[in-house]
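BUG-336 | component: ligand-complex export | severity: low

The export step for dinuclear copper ion jobs runs without errors, but we want the raw record kept on the ticket for reference. Input record follows.
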Amino acid sequence: MRRGPIFALLGIGVVAGAIATAVALLLPWLPDPASKERGRIDFVTWFTVGICIFIFAIVAAVLIYAIYRFRAAPDDDSDGPPIHGNTGLEIVWTLIPTVLVTAIGIVSAVVLARNDAQAKDTLNINVTAEQFAWSFSYPQAKGLTSGTLRLPVNRSIELHFQSKDVIHSFWVLQFGQKQDTVPGIKTELHITPTKVGTYPVICTELCGLGHAVMRSSAIVMPQAAFDKWLQDQTKATGSSDTGTAGAAVFKNNGCGACHTLTAAKATGKVGPDLDKLPTYAKNAGQELSAFIHESITHPNDYVEKGFPANTMPPFELPKDQLDALVQYLIDSSKKG
Ligand code: CUA
């Protein structure tokens, strides 16, 4: 083979590769990773993209060169030469992709295995998904349930999922992994947060009318701050002061995601406005306390006009928490 075509192919390949590399590196495609797992996943991504750019440059060079060098003259209507095949070429273009895809497979398998590997002091947190709220409970602090996920930084964490109704999917973009929550099946996700900060928790499985509002936050905090929060919360939930306890239950169960309540600075619009509870109780023909109680435990027996039916899940709360929440709602709505 003459040298000319080789140099031409090389030149076109370098230019195509440079353009593809610039597009890959100069645009911010991925967020900064906030977990060890995300860091590893990003490595697999760039490993694969690197291979793609290399192959793209070769294919683009051959294609552009062939289109230019072997184009037919404007008045050439004749058939091209008959070609049966080229065994050597076919072996090469089968072998190279086989090796590359196998390499991607091996790197991915190593990353998956390392992402699932827990450290000795793994912190377990139970996650419950329901239409349309996340709740997180901490086995190490009895009775503590929170509507936001709090995690200590640089600690191996295992989330244990359960769903009360339909399939949801847990996703924190900066942590890099998704996990479906399936009714009747226990699923898990291992995370090691590496950066203190607040990240959105998103449901990524269409789960009904409130799917779009099924959001929460993951707050990654230093270990000492996390320990203090855990202590304070345990105190507040078990507090004899009903107001504080009720407010904690309201916040921890994520009520504010769907409901408005001025006292709790909640502005949700999916469900009824809790500042108007006395009016709703009158409409339902019930005494206020009994009405609120019913509306939490059997929310679909009576739904205020103008709001979607069968949207709120029944909340099963321990009796002291339920009583505190009912009293808190009575006090708050009378003020509001
Ligand atoms: Cu839960 Cu979408």
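Assignee comment: Attached the raw record above. The longest strand covers residues 123-130.
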